């Protein structure tokens, strides 16, 4: 059985390779505002060093509310740096990986088994009143 963390990484790598991955709180908020129907999945990452960052916490609260209002699946991971590394951030393109969005393909004719498993996981978590479930990323 493949873990949710492995599915998350797989879905994000496919999205990155297809140009459907957006990283950064402000960049993600812009896409959510401009075209909410294009968003397939949202990942929030919190590092220990940012736990007391009130501005980031406010952004997370607003992003979570937006996702709930627009029926967008959302998960939390506990290590933004690890997330950036797993996505192959060698050139610094994911300098802010606290929020990552996966958008839908433009042709609409796509299915991603990893992303579908994550949607089911999120739906099951919500039914247990865990609104933003935490996913453990695979080891480094």
UniProtKB/TrEMBL annotation:
Example GO BP: regulation of cell cycle
A GO-annotated cellular component: nucleus
Gene3D superfamilies for the chain: 3.30.1330.30
Domain Ribosomal protein eL8/eL30/eS12/Gadd45 stretches: 11-91
Cross-referenced InterPro entries: GADD45, Ribosomal_eL30-like_sf, Ribosomal_eL8/eL30/eS12/Gad45
Pfam families listed in its UniProt record: Ribosomal_L7Ae
Record-stated family: Belongs to the GADD45 family.
Protein name: Growth arrest and DNA damage inducible gamma
TM ranges: none
């Amino acid at each position: 059985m493949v873990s949710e963390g492995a599915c998350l990484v797989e879905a994000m790598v496919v999205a990155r390779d297809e140009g459907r991955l957006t990283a950064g709180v402000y960049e993600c908020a812009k896409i959510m505002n401009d075209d909410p129907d294009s968003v397939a999945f949202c990942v929030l990452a919190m590092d220990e060093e940012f736990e007391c960052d009130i501005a980031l916490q406010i952004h997370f609260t607003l992003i979570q509310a937006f996702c709930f209002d627009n029926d967008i699946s959302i998960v939390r991971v506990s290590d933004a740096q690890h997330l950036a590394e797993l996505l192959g951030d060698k050139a610094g393109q994911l300098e802010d990986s606290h929020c990552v969005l996966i958008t839908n393909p433009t042709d609409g004719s796509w299915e991603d088994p990893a992303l579908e498993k994550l949607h089911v996981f999120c739906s099951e978590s919500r039914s247990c009143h865990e609104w933003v479930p935490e996913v453990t990323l695979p080891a480094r």
